[in-house]
């Protein structure tokens, strides 16, 4: 009878299994705990991003290839789900009220971003991607502008890392500043929508501030995201590189979650029978957003931080502080109402 040979488990494999288990446990906690313990929702968005970043930088994201692909569809699904908790008439009213401020902010952000990027000597594609991401809606705007500009992978990685890093900072800084200045729910919703890059961070910051801030911030931000269309048209017509004799191609892309959000909001507004299901979907989408924020934080690893370099960070930080500061002052002193 042959003796059974027991092969000891590789310590590295054992450590990786432990890392995977802890990561999955954290992800499940951020998805489920806010659903069963609503008071946790106020602090969960910021905690989720911080935990994701700390875990990834300290230990590495064991599912990075998967989470990188998942964050965009999860974000879109969460935003659509939130539409089930909002009245379409109020959504359109809030979007219309913020359209002038949004237009002015995007024009200022793009102009200042291009000027500052040239002063810092940044490559053309890098400065345009950071400027577009800061001025409109972060990662979604970068993704829409990339094929138009024919940007290289390195430019995309740098711009995305700058924008996502500042998004994580905004989740913590904006609510603290809003409370320190005594901003109302409506004021903070407007400020977060106008001053924070990415839709996910706007929702996360506004969610921690209050329900009215969440509704205002989400609707104004989605109205702002629609400006991806004219901005990408402008880039394709006047900025994109073309070979000699090549005709310029007019391109634009609409994020799918914007019409999805409007359809969800229309259903609960005009079809009363969907109200009960809509309330549940809205509650679950809030938890899904918190999970997405954890995954977004976990996607910011040490390699991405090393790639940044000083000049793109200076460009992104200075541009963001100027724009966020202008909107904060305008809202605080009643210029923007």
Describe the structure.
With 337 residues, this protein is an all-alpha fold. Helix content is 77%, strand content 0%. It is built from 16 helices and no strands. Helix 10 packs antiparallel against helix 11. The protein starts with 10 loop residues before the first helix and ends in a 5-residue tail after the last helix. The mean pLDDT is 83.
**How much is the radius of gyration in Å?**
21 Å
Strand content: under 5%
Bulk shape? globular
> Which range best describes the helical content: under 10%, 10-25%, 25-40%, 40-55%, 55-70% or over 70%?
over 70%
Reading the helices and strands in chain order gives HHHHHHHHHHHHHHHH
Q: Could you provide a short overview of the structure?
A:
The chain is mostly helical and 337 residues long. Helices cover 77% and strands 0% of the residues.
List the helices and strands and how they pair.
Blueprint: H1 11-36, H2 44-59, H3 64-83, H4 88-97, H5 99-119, H6 124-135, H7 138-149, H8 153-180, H9 185-195, H10 199-209, H11 211-225, H12 228-239, H13 257-270, H14 275-298, H15 302-307, H16 310-332
List keywords for this structure.
globular; mainly alpha; 337 residues
């Amino acid at each position: 009878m042959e003796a059974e040979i027991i092969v000891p488990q590789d310590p590295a494999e054992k450590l990786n299994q432990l890392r995977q288990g802890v990561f999955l446990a954290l992800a499940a906690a951020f998805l489920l705990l806010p659903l069963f313990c609503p008071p946790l929702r106020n602090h969960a968005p910021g905690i989720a991003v911080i935990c994701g970043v700390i875990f990834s930088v300290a230990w590495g994201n064991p599912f990075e290839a998967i989470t990188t692909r998942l964050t965009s569809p999860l974000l879109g699904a969460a935003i659509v789900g939130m539409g089930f908790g909002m009245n379409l008439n109020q959504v359109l009213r809030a979007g219309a009220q913020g359209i002038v401020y949004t237009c002015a902010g995007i024009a200022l952000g793009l102009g200042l971003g291009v000027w500052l990027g040239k002063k810092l000597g940044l490559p053309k594609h890098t400065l345009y991607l950071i400027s577009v991401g800061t001025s409109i809606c972060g990662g979604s705007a970068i993704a829409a502008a990339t094929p138009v500009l024919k940007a290289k992978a390195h430019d995309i990685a740098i711009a995305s890392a700058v924008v996502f890093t500042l998004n994580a900072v905004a989740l913590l800084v904006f609510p603290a500043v809003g409370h320190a200045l005594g901003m109302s729910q409506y004021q903070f919703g407007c400020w977060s929508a106008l001053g924070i890059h990415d839709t996910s961070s706007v929702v996360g910051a506004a969610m921690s501030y209050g329900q009215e801030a969440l509704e205002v911030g989400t609707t104004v931000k989605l109205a702002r995201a629609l400006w991806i269309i004219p901005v990408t048209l402008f880039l394709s017509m006047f900025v994109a590189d073309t070979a000699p004799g090549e005709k310029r191609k007019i391109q634009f892309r609409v994020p799918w979650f914007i019409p999805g959000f409007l359809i969800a909001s229309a259903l609960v507004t005009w079809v009363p029978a969907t109200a009960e299901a809509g309330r549940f979907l809205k509650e679950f989408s809030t938890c899904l957003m918190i999970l997405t924020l954890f995954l977004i934080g976990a996607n910011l690893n040490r390699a991405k931080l090393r790639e940044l370099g000083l000049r793109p960070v200076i460009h992104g930080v200075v541009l963001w502080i100027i724009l966020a500061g202008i909107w904060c002052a305008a809202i605080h002193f009643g210029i923007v109402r």
